[in-house]
Structure formats: C-alpha cells, structure tokens
Design a protein that fits this description.
By secondary structure, the chain is of the alpha/beta class. It has 15 helices and 16 strands. The chain has a six-stranded mixed beta sheet with strand order 6-5-1-2-15-16, with helices on both faces. Strands 8-7-11-14 form a four-stranded parallel beta sheet, sandwiched between helices. It starts with a helix and ends in a 5-residue tail after the last helix.
C-alpha cells in the first residue's frame, strides 16, 4: 500500500475540493503540435465523436476554410482516448448531490492527459509506461461538459497549459438550431443523462444562441434517460443479460423505484419481452408484482413515452421536430430511437392518434458528434496545432477500480458498487482508479462487436492497438 501511494504521488496531481492543489505558474508551457488529441468521455460513448473525427472531410486542409477537399481533415493526427468507466455513469452524481465529487473525477482525468507517464499495477507491482501529453482536449461527454468545462479550462490555465478544450453541448445546440431555422417551427427535444438535464446545460446554451439563428423564443423539452447509457455500457445496476428474474439492486424504472413504470401505459411502451429483456416478479397466482427493464431498447421506449406524456401534461403547443441525442452513447441506438418515435407517431387509442399533436412524422435526430469534430478542427487550425511529423499509435485507456485501495467496495462484476461509487466524498485525496489500456477484461466482446458494426473506423484503430480483439 505504501508503494502504491508513493508511486502515484509522484505521477498524479491529486485534485481535492478543499485544497484545489493546482500547479500555478506564470510561464506558458509549450505543447508539441505533433502530440495526440485527447478525447474524453465517462465511458465508451465518446468513441462516436472519435469516429466523426476519423471520417471528417468538411474543410479545405490548405486554407482551413469550410468545404470538402477530398482529404480527411484529421488525416495527419493521432489520438489518446480515455473512458472513465469505473466512475460512470456521470449522470447520477447530480441526483446523489455529488457534483463536487464528479468535478474531482473529471479534473483527475484531465491530469492524466497531461502526464508523460502512467503507472500500471501488474502482479502486485507498479510498472511505469511512457505516453505523450495531448495538445488539445475534446470533452466528448455531455455531463462533463455541463458541469466542468469551465473548471477544466481554469485548471489548465493555472497549470500553464494554453491548449484548446472543446465541449459537445455547444456543437449539439448549433446543429439543432440550424435544422430548426430551415424547417417549420417546433419543439426541440433534449434526450440526455439525468445529470446533463439537471444541469440545464442544453436549454441555457440553446437560449444563449437563439438570437444568432433568428429566434425570439424557443420551445424546449428535456428528458433524462436514466439507465440508457448505463445499459449500453452494461452497468450492473441497470442491465445484466444473464438475468431471468428481477433483483433488489436494480436502479432503473420499475413499479417500485422512484422512476415508475406506469401500468396504464404498458400497451404504449410496447416493451420487448423476449429473451428476458423485460423481467417480472410474479406472485403465487401469476400476477406481475414488479417490472424491471433489462435491455437498452426498452429504456428507449420508457423514456420516449415519458417525454411525450410530459408534453401532454405540460400542454406544449409546438410538436417536437428535433431531438438532440445529448449523450454520446445514444447514437448507438439511433435507429431504435427513430423506429420508436415512428411507432408513437402512429399510435392510436380509441380511434385517435395520441401523440400527433406533440410529434411530427419525421423527427430530426441531432448527433452532436459531427459538429464537435468540426469545432475541434477549427480550434486546431486556429491554434496552428496541425501535426507535421509522422503519426504515432492511437492509444485507448479506461479507468478500472484500484483494488490496492483497501476501502474499495466491488460488486460481483468487478466494478464499484452503486453505494460506494456515489457514497464517496470529494476531497478525500484518494486514487480510486487505475488507468489501463482497453482489453477484453475491461470491455466485453459484445461491446466490441457493437463498435465493429457502428464505428468501423474506430474499430480498425482499436484492432491496431490490441490485435487480440474479436
């Protein structure tokens, strides 16, 4: 334990709420333009942003001006991706009144990007590995952008690093307003994590930008997708594909939890019941006493119905014609979201269409990834950070529980228990996680298969990084 503390003290600047132990310097630290671009998310959802960067051709590479030139805009660049999987889902910190702890996690992750070394625990001993600093940071996480973008910029400045930091909320808001400007007026939907919704980040940004797009006022509806990102990343508290019956440690919507499944809407939810995707607890007479969701598509169904029912209850006048996918995980289920919206548009009860007053036939799904990639290119060009030397290997890191810390509490899948994860307090000056490369132990084969299907260019780079991937 002493060895662990000594090594990590030398390598990691611990960020605490009380001391705010930041390195303050008047000297500007130079960052090589031949360094990688850092891309950060709470999990693997941010790989959707990396896919957009790998495939972007929206600018002239010679002039930096808008307009495709047949050349990939980031063709000379390489990346360092970091997923804070151990501490996710970020969306729940606000509900647990732990946004100060969330900010602490995020700032520690930013310090990882600035390190030139990292320690990896192997066979009960730490080994030191080299890695480059990054030259730019893309925050491919809506919740992190909402709560900590300003803190990140302040921390970097106080450490003497003047490097661009790009967040996804501005990008998603611009794309939504651009679409709304060219179509009939309507309501902008924001489908995001509970934390992002609680921050009010999207409505504030949309309203701050509205005048530039010619709007006096906007109609906005938000829905926190509790459990959706978590189920996509196979968080034990929300989704276990081997289950056959309900369990006590489930945290998603049910008949008994704080997020209630309305039994009067069961025919509208139209949950998929096959392969234990919906779990029921039965009494002796075969009556279902509780219902638990156990598949990402059922979380989509629950939350989209909830959003539309909210529009009915709050008497929205403009139908939703735009939906921002305000979590980088959600584009993985873009087709599912579109199909469920189409179902709901056509849903009839007693011969009447229930949602047509609140929903247009085609809802434009806004994926902020593309606009974020564009913003990153503009920042790179404006700061003269284009790589002029040979590309290096792309690196993919993920956080895992630091089992050398005696207080750590783990659930049966090896990740933090819900109670421990959200029961921690900011300012404890503890290194809760290890930073390790992506492998088959910390990310499931099923998840890699999803990358292969949905993020083909990212998957190619992952295979180069680890040839053992499926």
């Amino acid at each position: 334990m002493l060895q662990f503390r000594t090594v990590l003290f030398l390598l990691i600047i611990s960020i605490t709420a009380n001391s705010q132990a930041l390195i303050k310097t008047a000297n500007k630290k130079t960052v090589s333009k031949n360094a990688p671009i850092g891309v950060f998310d709470s999990g693997t959802g941010g790989l959707t942003v990396l896919e957009a960067m790998l495939t972007l051709d929206a600018f002239n590479n010679e002039t930096g001006k808008p307009g495709a030139d047949g050349k990939l805009d980031f063709q000379s660049e390489f990346y360092q991706y970091l997923a804070d999987q151990a501490n996710m889902p970020y969306g729940n910190y606000a509900a647990e009144n732990k946004t100060d702890l969330l900010k602490e996690h995020i700032l520690k992750n930013m310090n990882f990007f600035l390190q030139k070394q990292y320690a990896l625990l192997q066979e009960k001993q730490f080994k030191i590995f080299e890695k480059p600093q990054v030259k730019m940071i893309v925050i491919a996480c809506n919740t992190a952008t909402a709560y900590a973008l300003g803190d990140i910029k302040t921390m970097l400045k106080e450490q003497g690093y003047y490097i661009p930091v790009i967040g996804v909320i501005d990008a998603g808001s611009k794309a939504a307003l651009q679409y709304l400007k060219t179509h009939s007026k309507g309501t902008i939907g924001v489908f995001a994590t509970a934390g992002t919704v609680a921050s009010n980040g999207y409505p504030k940004t949309l309203n701050a930008m509205k005048a530039k797009f010619g709007f006096d006022k906007l109609s906005v509806i938000s829905q926190g997708g509790v459990g959706l990102a978590e189920s996509i990343d196979r968080d034990y508290s929300f989704y276990v594909d081997t289950l056959t019956k309900p369990r006590k440690d489930y945290k998603g919507p049910s008949l008994k939890n704080s997020l209630v499944i309305d039994t009067t809407l069961m025919n509208i939810y139209h949950f998929n019941k096959s392969y234990n995707q919906l779990l029921c607890e039965y009494d002796d007479q075969g009556k279902c006493l509780d219902v638990q969701l156990n598949d990402p598509s059922n979380y989509v169904r629950y939350h989209l119905v909830t959003l539309l029912e909210k529009m009915i209850a709050e008497k929205y006048n403009e139908p939703m014609n735009t939906l921002i996918l305000g979590c980088t995980h959600y584009p993985y289920l873009k087709d599912t979201i579109a199909n469920v919206l189409h179902e709901l548009y056509n849903f009839q009860a007693n011969g009447k269409f229930r949602y047509r007053k609140y929903l247009v036939e085609h809802v434009e799904l806004i994926d902020p990834a593309l606009e974020t990639a564009k913003d990153a290119y503009i920042a790179m060009h404006e700061n003269n950070l284009m790589n002029t030397e040979s590309k290096q290997e792309n690196k993919f890191f993920i956080t895992i529980p630091n089992t050398a810390l005696s207080e750590v509490k783990l659930q049966q899948d090896g990740w933090f228990t819900y109670q421990y994860k959200y029961g921690r307090k900011a300012g404890a000056d503890l290194d809760y996680v290890q930073f390790v490369p992506f492998d088959l132990q910390n990310i499931s084969r099923a998840t890699y298969q999803r990358f292969h299907a949905v993020l083909p260019h990212v998957y190619v780079e992952l295979k180069k990084f680890n040839s053992l991937l499926p």
